[in-house]
Amino acid sequence: MIIVMGATGMTGGALVRSLADGAVPCRALSRAPHRLRDRLGPAAAPLVEPHVADAADTASLRAAFSGGRQLFLTMENGPRQTEFELRAIEIALESGIEHIVKISSPAVEPDSPVAIARGHHTVETRLRTAGIAATVLRPYAFMQNLLLLGPSVSRGDLLVGAMGRSPCNYVDCRDIGDVAAAALTRPELAGGTYTLTGTETCSFGRLAELLGRLRGRPVRYLDLPPERLRAQLTTERGLPGWLADHVVEIQRLAVTRPEAPTDTVARLLGRAPRGLEAFLTEHIDVFR
Ligand SMILES: NC(=O)c1ccc[n+]([C@@H]2O[C@H](COP(=O)([O-])OP(=O)(O)OC[C@H]3O[C@@H](n4cnc5c(N)ncnc54)[C@H](OP(=O)(O)O)[C@@H]3O)[C@@H](O)[C@H]2O)c1
Q: Is residue 55 classed as helix, strand or coil in its secondary structure?
């Protein structure tokens, strides 16, 4: 049995759909039964076993992992993320799980400029010494995150960031889900570390132009110094400090380390990754 943590989230949800498309059964985990029902829908019923579990509750994870052979490990960003992921690994080992596929990130180093990537480094390091097969997926920024910019674009015709003209790479979570499904069903892929990108890079300035063209009304890019972006995220958008720090850190990372596309998705899946323009076209109503 494949256990999918974060099945109501962006990557876990995409994985559950990808597995269901391939008629592969899985157990889908969430802390909230209603979210599982809303996210998975009735169509998944025969293949997907919904299961309620909370990484803060060791006993619930033990029950959720029981009988599992493979685990998809992802966790919402947050102050307890590393603790929760490390706990999931220990319980997976106790439960006899033989292969873990973990969602990580770029810039995974002990002294990474991105705090959350330092946490991923800790978890990856534990995984590599766990004595079981460990596959690591390191995606660039999710295209789905761009939808969070919708209100600012639709209300103010404005994209706000601190990336200057630096190119950023975006990957569609559905491609991450497809790669995760491949890693869980094709034994030759297990054990690899894969950096997942889209086909092209795109600066925020170009993104503003693209959105303006697609919706038929111009969008302007406002480039702020990092500290002003952070202040805006906490005061105007109400983000907690750690999340505002994370947004600024990843935007500055794009400036200091250009995010070139890789051919990993095409190599693993035998098809090109989904493109940014196609994604924006599909979701353009969010930006109107
Ligand atoms: N966003 C990006 O651009 C980006 C780029 C690279 C890497 N990443 C990495 O991707 C990961 C996040 O993946 P994602 O976007 O798929 O996550 P997500 O959409 O934020 O979903 C997170 C999932 O975690 C579950 N969760 C939260 N707290 C939990 C708990 N205490 N116990 C059990 N489950 C819990 C949630 O389930 P319930 O709420 O239903 O319980 C939800 O399904 C992070 O590690 C992040 O660093 C993100």
A: coil
